[in-house]
Amino acid sequence: MSSLKFIALSGTTGVTENFYVYEYGNDMIIVDCGVGFPEADMLGVDLVIPDFGYIKQNASKLRGILITHGHEDHIGALPFLLKEVKAPIYATKLVAGFIEDKFADYEMPPQKVNVFDPDKDVLTLGVFKVSSFRVSHSVPDGVGYVIDTPEGKLFHVADYKFDWTPVDDKPFDVKRMVSLASEGVLGLASDSLGSTTAGYTESEKELEQKIEEIFRKGKNKIFFTTISSNISRMQQALNACFRLGRKVVFIGRSIEKKVEIARELGYIHYPPDLVIAPKAARRLPGNKIMYLISGSYGQPGSALYRVALSEHDYLSVEQGDLVVFSSDPAPPGSKTNVDMVVDKLIELNADVHYYDMQEDLHVSGHGSQKDIEMLMALLKPKYAIPIGSTIRHMRAYSQLAQGMGIDPKNVFEMLPGQVLEFLNKNARISGKVPIKNVLVDGLGIGDVGQVVLRDRKILARDGVAIVMLQFDRLEGKLISDPEIISRGFVYEEKEKGFLRRSGLDLRQMIERKKGVNARIVRDATIDFLERYFFDKTGRRPMILPVIVEV
């Protein structure tokens, strides 16, 4: 007898990397396929992506990939997944535009994204019948899904809040959602990131006046930054500039591309003469210009990062310029980078308005406690599953669910890889799919593991000592004193005497051994110098013996 499986392959404990599977018999669908961002100790890693092993094993079952909205932690891993398996992708119009642009970034063959109308379309994907409804979030055109299965209806509501006055004038479609829930809701998997925040999350609309008030204070150039997919926030900045008589310049490829897509599809609006080219801006006084610039998370190499370090080709921040951050440094590892950028801008005597100043220049796109309680009250699910957050948020969500009358045994705080199985409308954790972190480093995917990361940490902390040894294979002895070259361990010019003594002591140790060969010399060198250097310096550099046999 077939059962319904909900598998949280990732996205339940780390906020990002949202990737969920619904499976029944020989049919399987995926909801969202996002990237994660490297932690500070993941040296050299660009992205973290979900483990696609289970999908590859069951590729014949895959009927479709459903995307909820256009943020990177929900769409960013699609190019990697589509290199492994083939399946149709379904998204709303704006999200489809973002996805197709992402495929172009990765120089993939054109991939068609199937666009659906969330107000009426029903998708048939194997045994699953999928309807959708509009939700409010910080990026327009987001949806929640209703997945009708032989076991019952499951609602998948990723990032959302109840915003009755969104910038795009398309509020959460509560009427359609409640209508789709009229026959009963077996389970609800929903955003839990705001479960520790009291009250309701503020509306995006309230920000526009605050942004304009700060812009009015600007006596020179204004630099405004937000995440590139936050079309609503950019619309607000454009509206403020139009009223204040400032021209707008888009700086940074991610901003330019997202705005271009959103404008072509009708999700952002501005008069043609409001936006000008960078060259035209140079002919205007600073108090007539606003630069909408990428780099709100302080990403190295981004436009704002280069401006802050005075490395941009043609832009510079001068005393009296206004810099406005309208975003929170939320992704793991981003706070350190963006703090550095803020400090550099302040050093340049700019007037910087940023996340720590309590000016409410950013509102969350995630529903707070009252939003979560309202969703549960409207849907009345038998089972509840917190997604898109961390362990502590899941526990807070569970407590909210219990307060709304859901049996504590019916709330599942799922760890990555766990399988929630529904049979005869009853649910239990029935197993776990083996998963691992998949790290993207340059062109390499999954070839950087814990051993490589450990080596990088050693190199970053203590450096490396390369030991050149000439070894007579027939005589079984060293021909000359070992030469030690240091990088990131000790300053070689100053410590040549120390490195020379280390080589002499190493040679004496090796010569005391009997019947040595190249392998023994290599192992003895590593063992001896690791202890020797730690005793003398308190550091443990990586030891790399290079043995030349003659």
Question: Could you explain the architecture of this structure?
Answer:
The protein is an alpha/beta fold and 550 residues long. It is 31% helix and 24% strand. The chain contains 16 helices and 26 strands. The strands form five sheets. An eight-stranded mixed β-sheet has the order 7-6-5-3-2-1-19-20. A hairpin with a 2-residue loop joins β19 and β20. α15 packs across α16. It is globular and about 85 Å long. The mean pLDDT is 89.
Key terms:
single chain; 550 residues; alpha/beta; eight-stranded mixed sheet; six-stranded mixed sheet; 16 helices
Sheet with most strands: 8 strands, mixed
Residue fraction in strands: 15-25%
Low-pLDDT ranges: none
Q: Structural class of the helix and strand makeup?
A: alpha/beta
Alpha carbon gap, first and last residue: 70 Å
User: Care to count the β-strands?
Assistant: 26
Quick check: average pLDDT?
89
What is the approximate shape? Answer: globular
Rg (CA only)? 28 Å
Binned, the helix content reads: 25-40%
Biggest sheet, spatial arrangement of strands:
7-6-5-3-2-1-19-20
Output the number of helix runs: 16
